[in-house]
Amino acid sequence: MLPTRSRIVGVDYGTKRVGLAVADPLRLFAQPLETHAPDEAVTALRVLHDREGIETLVVGWPLTPDGEEGAATQRVQPFVNRLRNAFPGVAIVTWDERFSSARAQDAIRAAGAGRKARRDRARVDRAAAAVILQEYLDEMADGLPTSDS
Length: 149
Description:
The protein has a single domain (7-141), classed as YqgF/RNase H-like domain (Nucleotidyltransferase, domain 5, 2-Layer Sandwich), CATH 3.30.420. It starts with 6 loop residues before the first strand and ends in a 6-residue tail after the last helix. It has five helices and five strands. It has helices spanning 38-52, 71-86, 100-110, 115-119, 121-143, and strands at 7-13, 18-23, 30-36, 54-61, 91-96. A hairpin with a 6-residue loop joins strand 2 and strand 3 (30-36). The model is unreliable at 145-149 (pLDDT under 50).
């Protein structure tokens, strides 16, 4: 049996809901997981960490359209600090999430979901967490040496 690797988890923080996504064991694909109220999200992550381990939390970092930090990043920072305190051995990465919700809605539409599903905020938040995580996974894969290097 192959040893299991700790999870990489995507987090889309919102004041009402936190969307979560997980990477597959090979770290190729992000899959939407669940949505929680902000106060419950840390508990859900703790359960996942205890059950499977978490190596990295990739938290959406809402930069302005110009790529600057602003009011939105200031709203996310306390949650990032809370994660750092709750998971001291876990890497916390903030990741540019500009337009992730729009890309999530596009992905939901492309999957054949109807208008009602595209308006389901919890579903969009989970999908946005998967978009954030997938971009991170793709970037990490691009930075790894190939077998012919």
